[in-house]
Design a protein that fits this description.
Shape: rod-shaped
CATH architecture of one domain: 2-Layer Sandwich
Largest sheet: 3 strands, antiparallel
Structural class: alpha+beta
Helix content: 25-40%
Number of strands: 7
CATH topology of one domain: TolA/TonB C-terminal domain
């Protein structure tokens, strides 16, 4: 049985080779011819010339580095000033307007085209303006006295150019002679605004005039 089946298988194999060998040979030959024709007849491929262009690179200078300073140290809060009780003498708190030692007539006349109240100048009059509320000004002086200077026992006198209009109202002031302390000068200007005057008269007509007014801050 073994020999018979082996003989049948060999015979079938041989028969398959004999029947298909020619077709295989022809297929191989056809494949070779097709590949050769493909390479021979295929058009030649040429690469296009690709030009790569770009914008010109520009150098930019960077701004200098900014160094941020450290935050300032916290300033210590000053000590609360102590208010000292100081009695003010009504007779010496405010000084009189002294026209003999400070003659207003020495001032030049107002410039041409300027208003009388623009700059200190001499304006003719027959009757000088007079203060009418000295007691109230004494109280205002005590209120406006710079507390730090009063506690330190510092006194000062400010001489002001003061323009008193035709209604007797202080309209403008300018320091003629400083006390040497900006606090006194500023306080004197505020006190001068509260002074009330009887208006100056020129030939029975009220006129605005410039006067010299002394403001004195003095502790006892």
């Amino acid at each position: 049985m073994a020999d018979k089946s082996s003989a049948i298988w060999v015979t079938a194999n041989e028969r398959f080779k004999s029947q298909n060998g020619d077709w295989m040979t022809m297929g191989v030959v056809a494949a070779v011819v097709a590949h050769f024709a493909l390479f021979a007849l295929f058009p030649t491929l040429n690469a296009d010339d690709i030009d790569f262009t770009g914008d010109e690179i520009e150098t930019i200078e960077l701004p200098p580095e900014v160094k941020i300073p450290p935050p300032p140290e916290q300033i210590a809060r000053p000590a609360t000033p102590r208010v000292a009780a100081a009695a003010l003498d009504e007779d010496i708190t405010i000084a009189r307007t002294d026209f003999e030692s400070n003659p207003i007539e020495n001032l030049p006349p107002p410039p041409a085209g300027a208003r009388p109240s623009d700059v200190p100048s001499y304006i003719p009059r027959d009757v000088e303006p007079r203060r009418t509320n000295d007691r109230e000004i004494i109280r205002i002086l005590e209120q406006r006295y710079p507390s730090m200077l009063r506690e330190a026992g510092i006194s000062g006198t400010v001489t002001l150019y003061l323009y008193v209009n035709e209604r007797g109202e202080p309209e403008k002031s300018q320091v003629q002679k400083s006390s040497g302390y900006a606090q006194f000068d500023a306080a004197a200007a505020m006190v001068a605004e509260r002074i009330e005057f009887s208006p100056a008269m020129n030939r029975d007509k009220p006129v605005g005039v410039w006067i010299l007014q002394l403001i004195e801050f003095k502790t006892q």
